[in-house]
Amino acid sequence: MLEIQGLRSGYGDITVLQGVSLNVNSGEIVGILGANGVGKTTLLKTISNLIKTRAGTINYQGKNLTHVPPSKLLNLGIAHVPQGRNIFSKMTVAENLHVGLDNVKKRVNPQEQLDYALALFPKLKERWNQLGGTLSGGEQQMLAIARALVTKPSLLILDEPSMGLAPIIVRSVFNAVKKIAQDGTTILLVEQNAVAALNVIDRLYVMDMGRMVYESQEMNDNELEKIKEVYLGAG
Ligand code: ATP
């Protein structure tokens, strides 16, 4: 579904991505793990063309994405939930979700999409008329994911959904992520919280200094042991 080859990008004179390759198959939850500052966010932003590709290719469903502006991605079925959530804090939950819907009105049935998102995150229904900025961190993350979901994406890109959340909330967000994938949306997920991510992902890549340094096969006990050695430093 998504095939990336030799991707290079960066900021000014700095090259952050040093030739990244990865692929995501339809229906998978693929995780990219890595420490602070290794280039995970830069990779997701390059996929969404928020940062220019300097070399390499990004193919999505056979289409070259490297020159597709971010605003056109929703119509191709790609939704990106950025790190830090970026919800509109002065708008209500309802208004935030309608902003998501405004982008795709012609393509989706708005009520169906709202019903789906609210069934997944019932808390948002309770907070319907509350301003985004007054929600808890977990609720803001749920709203950010819901706002992406109402656009009915084929590929959902999540940048550190666990950031700043208490463990119990992380679990509930990740359960929702799993459900979204079971319902047919492919997911590419960046995480520093490896333990939380390992519970839901089908396959993973480990990134270090702008490169993929490990690529897992299908997850099984053997693979998990290897990942612990490579990434978690526990044998
Ligand atoms: P984190 O999880 O902390 O966001 P990350 O793996 O996502 O880490 P990136 O945010 O992609 O890492 O950052 C990779 C490198 O690029 C870092 O060295 C960072 O300092 C640098 N960088 C990120 N944003 C910019 C920017 N706007 N201008 C210059 N350098 C940047």
Instruction: Give the end-to-end Cα distance, rounded to a whole number of Å.
Output: 34 Å
Low-confidence stretches: none
Question: Mean pLDDT, as a whole number?
Answer: 92
What do we call the CATH topology? Rossmann fold
- How are helices and strands ordered from N to C? EEEHEEHEHHHHEHEHEEH
Rg from Cα: 17 Å
Main structural class: alpha/beta
Q: Identify every distinct bound molecule in the structure, by name, code or SMILES.
A: adenosine-5'-triphosphate
| Annotation field: number of helices | 9
Tell me about this structure.
- With 235 residues, the protein is of the alpha/beta class.
- The protein has a single domain, classed as P-loop containing nucleotide triphosphate hydrolases (Rossmann fold, 3-Layer(aba) Sandwich), CATH 3.40.50.
- The protein is built from nine helices and ten strands.
- The strands form two sheets. It has a six-stranded mixed sheet with strand order 6-7-8-3-9-10, sandwiched between helices. Strands 2-1-4-5 form a four-stranded antiparallel sheet, covered by helices on one side.
- A hairpin with a 2-residue loop joins strand 4 and strand 5.
- Helix 3 packs parallel to helix 6.
- It is globular.
- Adenosine-5'-triphosphate (ATP) binds next to strand 2 and helix 1.
- GO terms for molecular function: ATP binding.
- Belongs to the ABC transporter superfamily.
- This is ABC transporter ATP-binding protein.
